[in-house]
Structures are given as structure tokens and as C-alpha cells.
Amino acid sequence: MYNHLEAENRTLNHFSFVFKMKVLHRYIITEFIPPTFLALFVFTFVLTMERIFESINLLISKGVSLSSVLQLLGYALPSILVYSIPMAILAGTLLCFGRLSSDNEIIAVQASGVSLYSLFFPVIILSFIVSIFLVSFNERIAPQSYNQFRKLYYQIIHKNPVLKLEERSFLEIKDYMLYVEKVKQKKGKLSGIIMYEMKKEGFPTLITAQQGNMISNEQQVVFRLFDGSIQQKDKDDPNKYSITYFKNYDISLDLTQTPPPKAKRIRQMEKSELLQEIKRLKRDNIPTHSLEVEYHQRKSIAFAAFVFCLIGIPLGIKTRQKGKSIGFGLSLVLSLLYWFLLVEGITLGERGIIPPFFGVWIANLIIGIAGTWMIYRTVK
User: Fold this and answer.
1) Distance in angstroms (rounded) separating the CA atoms of residues 330 and 93
2) Are 147 and 37 in a shared domain?
3) Residues 286, 374 within the same domain
């Protein structure tokens, strides 16, 4: 009878413990997810700001359609999430465990006999799952999106190549170098125009005009110049040159012969394409350090989320701060340290000083080992 009651008590205690763990794990996750998503929004917005300003300039100053601008931003977003997601995991971990520590909930959990490892378990597992997802994201989705970004940007520029034209800077279009003092992109009006027609033989022809208009479509761009001159040097005697003045002068440039770029940048290559290129170059005894660095880097950055979690847990507990500014500030400092180590490792890997694999994983190893040791010391 006594043994039977004891067995029932053990069973009840077991189910009670399991229930408590489920409640505790659910509570930790609910404390972790909101600050992580807040951090993801903040870091993504900060890293996207340059793109946003460029897009506003394209929309307002250069007359690119709103749908094209939004598409460009959408295609650029995955390349930014590659970096902002690990940073958000770090900030979310710091904020979560910083609040738990400041409210003495960590001490309460220890006093109830629950191991701190059980407290850390759900966040560590969740960050590991995020890292596994990011491996596929970094190897496939981000390169595909960047590839689409490049294609769309080329299509926009091909339709209107003068979109790249900025005031008081040179722009190369076909065989011409173009310089403009002032530009009104939407109206297509130019002033203070200087053009050099580059020739294979002889000296370039200098064309200047006070005012001008530009009209462009997918087939051609036409520069209609007013009140200017054409200066040509004699190819046999550079001291001799001729000047022709004009009231109106049209320059038409054919764009149909401009092929789209076929060669992919390394960032545009998916995993399979990188491996094929590495094999091809190795057959020809050509160094592949840069390609190998890019191949391994995508996995190492994915697992930055996991190692950031490992270092964030003990640091969050030790800071004992509720404030979001402390968590964001500390996560920014740690992120900068990580990226510094990563860039140094990439540099050494690309130069062939150390193996590319080790070069891109050294930051993860340092941060991960430090985080694991600090967790051990925190529990002890």
C-alpha cells in the first residue's frame, strides 16, 4: 500500500514538474520574442536607411515609378536581414535576461530548485532553429533577391541611363563622357553641359552648351543642346583645332546594342553556382580563396544568431538592466566586435594566409566559446 502511494506521488510530482517546465519555457519565450522583433525592426530600419534615401531620391527627383522603387526595396531587404536577424537575436536575448535578472526572477527560479540550464534551454533552441533557417536563407533566398535587384536596377537604368547622372559629376554613356552643372530629372532639363566624344583614334571632341534637354526610352537617348560649341583638335597636329558654334544640336545614342550584364557577381551566386565555379577554377589552377570565403561565410553568419544567444544570456543576467537602451547599446558593441573579427578573418582567408573555412568561422568560435564559458560560470 505504502509503495503504491509512493509511486503515485512520484508520478504526480513528475507530471507537476513537466507542467511547470512547460509553463516556464512558454514564459521565457514570451519574454524573448517581443524585444527580438522590436530589435529586428530597429536594426533592419537602420541598415535600410541608405537604400530608403536612395529610393526617395529616385522617386521624387528622378521620376522613377513608385512600384519600381518598392520592388527595389523589397529585393534589397533579404541582403539586409542576413545581418539584422543575428543582431536582433543578440539584443532580444540581452533584453529578455536583463529584465528577468533585474526583477530577481533568476534568483527565484534558482531558489525553487530549477536548473538555470532549463531556463536558458528554450531561447538557445529557438536561436539554433533560426540559424538553421538562415543557412538556407543566406545560400538561396538572399542571392536570388540580390540578383533580381540587379536585374531590375539595370532595366530602370537601361530605360533612362541619365538617372545615374548627378550634378557636377561625370557620367559615361556609350562613347560620351557627360558633365552637367544642374539637372532637373523629371523635366529632362540640363544646364552647364560639357560632353566629350571619346574616339579610338585621335583626340576627343569637346561639346559644350549652356542649356539642353534629354529625351530617353528603351531604344535611345537624345540630347538636344542649345547655344553651344564643338571643338575638335587635328589628330595630326594637336596645336590646330576648329570651333563650330551652334544654336541647336542633337546627339542621339542608340541603347539597343547595350547588352545586359551576363556575368554574376559573387553575391548573386547561389550555393550550387559557387561550388561549380570553385571546381572550374581549381581545374585551371586558379586561386579560389574569395569564392571559398563567400561560400563558408554564408553559413558562419547564419550561426552568428546562435553564438550571439550564447554570449547574450550571461551578459544579460550580469547587466541586470531593464532599459532597452542598455540592451541595444551592448548588442551594438558586441555586433561591432563580431563583425571586426569576421572582417579580419575574411581578409586573412582571401589572402590565403589561413584556410578560408577557418577565417570566416573564427569569430563564431571566439564568441561561442566565450559565451559557453560565461554560461557555465553563471550557473556555477
Assistant:
1) 11
2) yes
3) yes
How far apart, in whole angstroms, are the C-alpha atoms of residue 364 and residue 101? 26
The rounded distance, in Å, linking the Cα atoms of 141 and 149 is: 12
Residue 276 to residue 299: CA distance in whole angstroms: 18
Selection from 165, 150, 154, 100 nearest residue 322 by Cα: 100
For residue 240, being part of any structural domain is answered with yes
The per-residue pLDDT for 164 is 65
Residue 166 lies in a domain: no
Q: Which residue has the cell 543576467?
A: 317
What does the pLDDT read at residue 105? 79
Residue 205 CB: number of other CB atoms within 10 A? 17
pLDDT at 15: 44
Beta strands 170-173 and 176-184 are: antiparallel
Task: Centre a 10 Å sphere on the Cβ of residue 273 and count the other Cβ atoms it contains.
Answer: 14
Q: Please report whether residue 163 resides in a domain.
A: no
Contacts of 82 (CB under 8 A, 6+ apart): 134, 137, 138, 142, 301
Q: Are residues 242 and 304 in the same domain?
A: no
**For the chain, which ranges sit under pLDDT 50?**
1-2, 4-5, 7-9, 12-17
Cell of 225: 543642346
Query: Containing domain of residue 8, as a range?
Result: 2-158+279-379
Cβ count within 10 A of residue 191? 15
| 29, 110: one domain | yes
Q: Is residue 170 part of a domain?
A: no
